[in-house]
């Protein structure tokens, strides 16, 4: 049973703060272990990767077999039914067309003084994509990470996925191929992150590593940051549903449970101005839990981290939501747009009663890799920009240098940087 | 004396790789110390900040005196001469007008199916700006970090600067005021980062922390990452100058030394197709070093990390430059644009003989906070985007849900996520 808060209760602020501060992740201290694995792969390359793969994935391989072969991709295609394949294609195409709109535009212009300035965007040449193994090996995540990379123009997109006991999810292979992944290696854990960051004889290094993973993968990404770029470190998923009284409680309950079934540390919160709906949704959650395949996980999440917040008016909802900065925000009210306009901190907004968050997980077209744990206050979901970088361009002719030079010299001198001043002065014959 | 490499030498590749791999930073292990300071500030707030300020900056303060007062800003104004102030205003205005062009455009559209999608950019509400104390307390860095934040629309821009023995650089105060900094506190080190990230009674928390600092500040930023956003961790500065034979060796030498004077760990590299120019620049460097106020620093940088690379043809220059991914790239050749177009990995390009990198440090208008240590392969200089975040928006009507729903259900089922499937199916009466 989730906790219940009422905005008008005198202890609301205290309890709301406690909800915001709740630690949902147990942080494992795996830094030392990971440091050892990274150093070993850096030193011994393929041999170290093969050793760790034998130890952690119970898989004896030769270096030549690290890469998933064309024949394996073909075999995987045969294992996927037509309906699922068509759904993956639809998802791929919609992700592609939405993300194509995110491509930044170069800017080169001459200002009033005659100085030329510019910003030029180029794709990162080589990117590594980590995909978890086992039950968390989601084909939708492959698409959500790989398609934007390819839209950005990444030349070499290298995916890794651990295959414990040699088992590989054929859907992951099919998704990788649909998304245009260039190389796929059957490795995981810190050893895979190390191979991508430092390179081995078999795997050429990449410049950035993205994708979710367990505590070892997260620690490895943090440790190689600087050598390569990394994406955000994702935490457990979360949803906040803002709902008026005119909702079907079963719809809302299903949405709350769709988050909760991800992980016992996931968080589902309902915010409503109607205490009756609150009651009805809580009852529906309990009812639906009974027939849910992942019911135990969802029940634990709902019990430990779920919450129902009753507000006096929906006008109070957005300010509270902005403090929570939810990864996913559903706005299930009669006239959602005025609320949508007010939202400042949220990873993604799902507008209206017929936009369940799950549509965004798969086929909406927008990205499902979104900022968790209140980080939507300062960061964004995955986009094409994460696979590109910007070079700035400056050109001053002799004329412009004469105009701007003296100010540059004045500032260099004020900062005590004599060679800076000279580098300008010498061109002005000063 | 810098090392000399020739592209046609048989050992070139080996030596070039060694140059790329050269470690210029001594990494101090200050993690444990920093962890203690962060925990203490988190627990004791202002009292801890005041204790560390007394210990590290030899400055006894009451909490009420942490914030720099209006009277101090007024006093600082009187200490800055008119020429320097005018240079700061010029720099501020040029940075402002260039960065205004970086503001991203919101996108909301309806696709062929009738699905509404969107991306909306909003400013981060509160940002902290770390400014180093002492000789590295540069007013130009204040402008380069603070102006883009204000252009982005950050509501509350909070600056911290340590003032060892109570000494504060008046130029830094004037620059902070010109840039629109909202609050300024005289604290530094890990304790300042902690105060910004966790908040104290005096200092309300921020959502992101930017700006350069020493090893303690960098470690503190890494440790609070997640609680708040951080910018890149900047390394020592570097420049690569690509020059044809038709350059004044003294101009090029001055540019190389302008980087070298920053730091003994800075790196200046000349790449040219003219061995005579290489010789002449080396001689000019030695000559200019003698009259440089920061000659010792520059000489150590040039001796330990400087390099001159002679290529057979300028066509070879850009591929090598892309492997180096320099923070600053000067292209001092007769017809620079064809080379500019080829560059893929560089923080900023300075085009033509009359665009010394120093113009970009101060008054060009582009940002001087740029990716170091080859990270231009995967990251960009500071921009307005670093102070904003994007919320994605999705809206499917009942009609669109009927079209897309079955594919979402198919993928949810393929991924074993029953509540995901139900969240869609229940809306379709399935």
Automatic annotation (TrEMBL), chains A, B:
Its cofactor is Zn(2+). One of its GO terms (molecular function) is histidinol dehydrogenase activity. Substrate binds at residues 237, 259, 262, 328, 361, 415, 420. It catalyses: L-histidinol + 2 NAD(+) + H2O = L-histidine + 2 NADH + 3 H(+). CDD domains: Histidinol_dh (cd06572). Its EC number is 1.1.1.23. Keywords: Amino-acid biosynthesis, Histidine biosynthesis, Metal-binding, NAD, Oxidoreductase, Zinc. The active site is at residues 327-328. Zn(2+) binds at residues 259, 262, 361, 420. Pathway: Amino-acid biosynthesis; L-histidine biosynthesis; L-histidine from 5-phospho-alpha-D-ribose 1-diphosphate: step 9/9. One of its GO terms (cellular component) is cytosol. Binds 1 zinc ion per subunit. It comes from the Bacteria. GO terms for biological process: L-histidine biosynthetic process. NAD(+) binds at residues 130, 191, 214. NCBIfam families: hisD. Catalyzes the sequential NAD-dependent oxidations of L-histidinol to L-histidinaldehyde and then to L-histidine. PANTHER family: HISTIDINE BIOSYNTHESIS TRIFUNCTIONAL PROTEIN, HISTIDINOL DEHYDROGENASE HDH. Belongs to the histidinol dehydrogenase family. This is Histidinol dehydrogenase. It comes from Kaistia nematophila. The gene is hisD.
